[in-house]
Design brief:
Length: about 190
């Protein structure tokens, strides 16, 4: 049953000091993200685990030192691959050839060229990244770890903390750790 993990997940705003998710957990979360769906099967993301204290502090600063970031034991920052989405890129060709499983790539190219607009691809790619983020948040909840998705960051400082190229855009930082507080009452609109 997946629903218990969905019900258990909440945005944790403060983590227990000294509780750092280990490499095995980060690998599991990244695997959950890797299996997320994406439009055209383009998987326009890259996942950057951040554990090392100096880099962790730089990521927290990019997140304006909000408490979830400042106390996180680790992050996985989800990066949107933006320039790679050019229809003439090797990246797109490789993905479409893989998706076509040896079949004709012409129909998907035709649909994608009609869809592609360079000026909107950064936000489109970030939107795709959210699917991977959701998978990772639920996997963290399933294993008993706390998480907080953080979209409130300075993109320039985040890019510099992670040494990103201009072809990539940070989409969401997932703060991870053992949550230091219980879940607040769930607020949701009725169906
Ligand atoms: C894309 C995204 C960005 C978010 N950014 C932040 C953030 O910068 N800081 C924060 O404290 N929470 C952030 N959140 C968490 C939301 O505030 C939280 O999910 C929402 O209030 C619902 O609460 P719940 O997740 O505990 O059910 C973000 C959530 C999403 C999906």
């Amino acid at each position: 049953m997946l629903l218990p993990a969905i019900e258990a997940r909440f945005a944790c705003r403060r983590f227990v000091s000294g509780e750092t998710p280990d490499a095995g957990l980060l690998a599991e979360l990244i695997e959950a993200g890797r299996l997320a769906p994406s439009a055209f099967g383009l998987e326009p993301w890259r996942f950057v685990p951040v554990v090392e204290p100096v880099q962790r502090a730089a990521v927290a600063r990019a997140c304006f030192d909000q408490p979830a970031a400042e106390t996180a034991g680790a992050f996985i920052v989800v990066i949107a691959l933006v320039d790679a989405l050019d229809p003439d890129s090797d990246y797109v060709r490789n993905r479409f050839e893989a998706e076509a499983r040896g079949g004709d790539t012409a129909p998907v190219y035709e649909a994608y060229r009609a869809f592609y607009r360079a000026e909107t691809m950064a936000s489109w790619a970030c939107g795709q990244c959210n699917f991977a983020v959701a998978h990772m948040l639920l996997q963290a909840a399933h294993t008993g770890w706390g998480s907080c998705p953080i979209g409130g960051f300075d993109a320039v400082r985040m890019s510099s903390a992670l040494a990103l190229s201009r072809a990539e855009v940070p989409a969401v930082a997932i703060a991870l750790g053992r949550c230091a507080h219980s879940a607040a009452e769930r607020l949701r609109k009725p169906i």
